[in-house]
Design brief:
The protein is globular and about 60 Å long. The longest helix has 17 residues. It has 11 helices and 6 strands. With about 210 residues, the protein is of the alpha/beta class. It has one domain: Cobalamin biosynthesis CobH/CbiC, precorrin-8X methylmutase (Rossmann fold, 3-Layer(aba) Sandwich).
C-alpha cells in the first residue's frame, strides 16, 4: 500500500491532530493542554496525559518569569540543546547547563557528590529569575529541595522529570511536597527530551501571544 509523503511543514500539525483524536477530545484546562500534548508528541507515550502534575498557577508563574528574562538551567546538555532559545533570548533570558564546567566537575569529585548537585549550588549565583529543568538527575531535585529550605535558592519553576529507577520517585516526591512551583512526572518516566519539551511548550505559548 502506498504511503502518502507529508510535507515537513505539515508533519507537526498532523501529529497534534492525531494526538488530540487519540485523547478523545479530552481537555486538561488551565493551559495544560499544549504542554501535555507536546510531551506526548515528543515521546509517543500517552501515559503523560495522566502522570504530569502541575502545581497551582504554575504555568502563569513560568510565563511571567520567561517574559521577565528568566534563566533556564538544565541538568543535561541534551536538554540544553533541545530547548528553542530564540524566544528566551528575545526577552533577555538565557539557557545554561553547568554539567560540563570544570569547576563543577572538580568540586563534585573533591566532595564525592554528583555534578548535578554542584550545578544546583552554582545556580544560587544566578541573579535572574530561575527555571530549572531536570530530566536526568534525581540528585538535582534532592539538592534543589535542600537549597530552597536553606533559603539559598528560589526557583520560579522546577520541571522535575528525571527518568530511571534509583531515587527517582523519592526525589520527585520531595518536589511535589516542597511548595516549589513545579511540573513533575509521577513514577519512573521522564528524560531530557521531556524536560526540553515542557520548556518549549511554555515558550511557544508566549510565541502565540
Amino acid at each position: 500500500m502506498p504511503i502518502d509523503i507529508v510535507k515537513p511543514i505539515d508533519i507537526e500539525r498532523k501529529s497534534f491532530e492525531i494526538i488530540s483524536e487519540k485523547l478523545g477530545g479530552k481537555v486538561f484546562g488551565n493551559g495544560k493542554d499544549d504542554i501535555i500534548k507536546r510531551v506526548i508528541h515528543t515521546s509517543a507515550d500517552f501515559d503523560y496525559a495522566d502522570n504530569l502534575v502541575f502545581s497551582e498557577g504554575v504555568i502563569e508563574k513560568a510565563l511571567s518569569a520567561i517574559k521577565n528574562g528568566a534563566c533556564i538551567l538544565t541538568d543535561t546538555n541534551m536538554a540544553f540543546s533541545g530547548i528553542n532559545k530564540k524566544i528566551i533570548l528575545s526577552f533577555g533570558g538565557c539557557v545554561k547547563c553547568f554539567m560540563s564546567d570544570k569547576d563543577v566537575s572538580d568540586n563534585a569529585k573533591k566532595r564525592g557528590i554528583t555534578r548535578a548537585m554542584v550545578s544546583m549550588e552554582k545556580a544560587c549565583g544566578i541573579e535572574k529569575e530561575l527555571i530549572i529543568a531536570v530530566g536526568n538527575a534525581p540528585t538535582a531535585l534532592i539538592w534543589i529541595d535542600k537549597l530552597v529550605k536553606e533559603g539559598r535558592l528560589k526557583p520560579s519553576l522546577v520541571i522535575g522529570v528525571p527518568v530511571g529507577f534509583v531515587n527517582v520517585i523519592e526525589a520527585k516526591e520531595l518536589i511535589l511536597k516542597s511548595g516549589i512551583p513545579h511540573i513533575v512526572s509521577k513514577g519512573n518516566k521522564g528524560g531530557s527530551t521531556i524536560a526540553a519539551a515542557i520548556v518549549n511548550a511554555l515558550i511557544y505559548k508566549l510565541k502565540k501571544c
